Amino acid sequence: MENSPAPAPHPKIAEALAFLQAAEQSAATGDASRVAWTVQQFDEGLTRLKPFLTEGGDPLRWFALGLMGRANVLRSRGEAGLAEALKSYDDAVNVLKGATATGSSEEFRRDDLGNVWINRGLALLAAGSAQQLAQAVTSFEACIELRKGLSTGPNHQFHYGLAAGWMNRADALTRLGAPEHLVEALRSYDEALAVMQTLPVEENDWFRHRLAVAWMNRGITAQAIGGPDSSAEALKGFDRSIALLKGHRLFERPEGKHLLACAWLNRAGLWLARSPEKLAQARESALAARDTISGMEEQQPGMADVALKARHAICRAAAAKLEEAKTGEDVKALVAEATDAVDEGLALSRLWEERGVPAFKPMEAELFRFGTQIYQKHQPHFLAEFVLENLDPERSPAAAKATAPMMQAGAEAVSRTLQGLQARGFGEIGKPGMERLLETLGDLRAADERLRQVRTRVRA
Description:
It is a single chain. By secondary structure, the protein is an all-alpha fold. Helix content is 76%, strand content 0%. It is elongated, with a radius of gyration of 28 Å. The mean pLDDT is 91.
């Protein structure tokens, strides 16, 4: 005998669900201009559904999930929507707490309630104050307690949700940053990994992606703890993340490339921060991060952010290696690699600024500072040209948007180099290269004067 079809919902319930569905579809677009309309649709659907709550069952669940959807939209407004979002989350929690269910329905009720708690925690996590982060930890712990002991669920839904609770708890604790928080965060990542490794990561690409995220983030937390043992744990995390992504079909997708580049970048940062003798490995990791997303940094701001940080790491590795170079050692290739990274980074930042994304200006200033230092120490005859190309509006339209830190770095580099070469000049009289030295001094004096004029006009 065939199963009977599920009865159609009451027409009034169907009307309510139509409003909630329209709201969910609008929320999925991420269009900030539609937030007010989307909240209005949620409110209309919830108002129409409210008379049926006494029936329990599906109407109660739909109502709670509608409240959560409404809260998620409100949290997208940041601090302005946080208080109202938290109220909606709390209302959803109270609805689901008051519901009763048995068997598999009870598991779904607990998972739904866990989902509300985790979204509540994410809203607090984004707000970011110490008090809000502590509250986020509490929300994630409520989620974890609800999902512990559940079966795997359909398509491993419940176990994946449990791992998400542990990962988000670890994230909040890492952001709190005290030593005891970091140790507990590491334990949370271990709990998440234990659950994630029971999931079919070979068949499900999303599970594999999240496992790679967990390993990378565990590495970041381990690095924050500090010490030799923590460095080894950090490296293990980054390497496990890279191994999960490298050569896998995930690498064919933008999100996979982005995550792999981030893992390489964190690996480079670890070597640069902790192991001066590992500069070669730091350089290789930074180059791998850059190459992983090559060609995509002009398409997505998130890719550009990683690409700029990778070039910054390349510059840091080059600068440290140049400091170690012995007198007379050929460093032309290393200097070229660093100056190319600077030029590429400056061009990328300006491209996004032209598109209305000025968020990369601080990194642009830092790359420019690196450029002035490298030219000052290793190619002073190119310093004046580099500085004026980036700071003189008559040379380049982009220079009109140079920031104050860039102006200061350029002026100081020219002034220091000019003073150093002038002092050196008396001892170079009659020696080979004197003509080039005089030419460089002339260029630097002209650049120094031009920068004074440009800075005077900016202040005016």
